[in-house]
Amino acid sequence: MRVLAAMSGGVDSAVAAARAVAAGHDVTGVHLALSAKPGTLRTGARGCCTIEDSRDARRAADLLSIPFYVWDFAERFTEEVIETFVGEYAAGRTPNPCLTCNEKIKFEALLEKAMALGFDAVCTGHYARLSVVDGVPELRRSRDEGKDQSYVLASLTSEQLRHSMFPLGGSLKSEVREEAAEQDLAVAKKPDSHDICFIPDGDTKSFLEKKLGQTPGQLVDDETGEVLGEHTGVHGFTVGQRKGLGIDSPAPDGNPRYVLSLEPVSGTVKVGSRDRLAVTEIDAKRPIWPSEKPLDGPTECVIQVRAHGGTADAVAEFDGAGITIQLRQELQGVAPGQAVVLYRPEESGDLVLGSGIISATR
Asked: Biological process GO terms, please (predicted)?
């Protein structure tokens, strides 16, 4: 097969490309330039998508003796990922920009261009297991549970998955680093990137304030209605947040207060005790079924609401438009705008049944 290997400049994508080469595929490497000013993105252990990363990707491609290109996706990344991120926060929701990037950039824009150029598949360093049985894709958790990325891939369509390769799904991260060292890849010990790549200093609140300006509002006790303080914008808060609320006095019982809900129209941020964060029901819109099999009646499953953690046993039902989920265990800090992914536990790795975007909680 003709395979386009997306090479971020990290160890995972380099080893994924190496495995595609070893499997006998005709591999071409590509690095995505996602910023018109790459120096503004994070460097070192906390970032990705920098000039340094593109050079690391090129060195890995040279070592593997495969062609290598840099594709400029900066404009589309700004429109699809950064502007969506800002717009969601302005609407009082909590988005996951990495999920959006995977959906809109790596497996829509990239795959679209790859197919137009005659490639058969896109290969990435994501930790997830993927198989295609009788033309139907099956996406599962990776062997390395701590690195599993099936959550951020669950928004991909079956057609996108048919043209995707995840060579690392059956490996542990430690094995991947060992393999990189054995092949003399310079990125073998390169630290993993984390946090949001397009916020250079990691200060999300300041980033959003620069984009949206200040929209003052009130911090209100959810039970009593008492005004506890002022703030400069609902975009500076997320459901479940405890620190940095700007409230001078403690709660009457001495316990911390948490953000319970955001009302962008009125500018109200409601706060209260931790137990009021508990969620037992979730509604989700924009359902996606990677294996083209929508839920048929009430379905026992395990749901996940964050990239790492936030899981619970549940019963989910699809009404033809959205998904309603009844949780068997309470979850806290669940916010509209987050993705919810439905899994069916299996010995071969939990199977992704579907995903949706949380629209309401109760």
From this structure: tRNA wobble position uridine thiolation
Q: Is 70 exceeded by the pLDDT of residue 62?
A: yes
Are 219 and 341 in a shared domain? no
Q: What percent of the chain has pLDDT over 90?
A: 81
- Same domain, residue pair 285 and 260: no
CATH of the domain at 59: 3.40.50.620
Is 165 annotated in some ligand binding site? no
Q: Which positions are catalytic?
A: 101, 197
Q: In this structure, are 36 and 119 located in the same domain?
A: yes
Q: Which residue has the higher pLDDT, 253 or 14?
A: 14
User: 260 and 315 share a domain?
Assistant: no
Name the nearest CA neighbour of 315 among 305, 301, 297: 301
When divided into structural domains, the chain yields a total of: 3
Instruction: Give the pLDDT band of residue 45 (cuts 50, 70, 90).
Output: very low
Q: What is the pLDDT of residue 37?
A: 65
Q: With bands split at pLDDT 50, 70 and 90, how would you rate the model's confidence at 55?
A: very high
Residue 136 lies in a domain: no
Q: Is the pLDDT of residue 317 over 90?
A: yes
Give the mean model confidence (pLDDT) for residues 315-326: 98
Indicate whether 341 belongs to any domain.
Answer: yes
Q: Both 220 and 271 in a single domain?
A: yes
The reply to whether 6 sits in an annotated binding site is: yes
Residue 115 belongs to domain spanning: 2-125+167-189
Check which CATH number belongs to the domain holding 307 and give it. Answer: 2.40.30.10
12 marked as part of a ligand binding site = yes
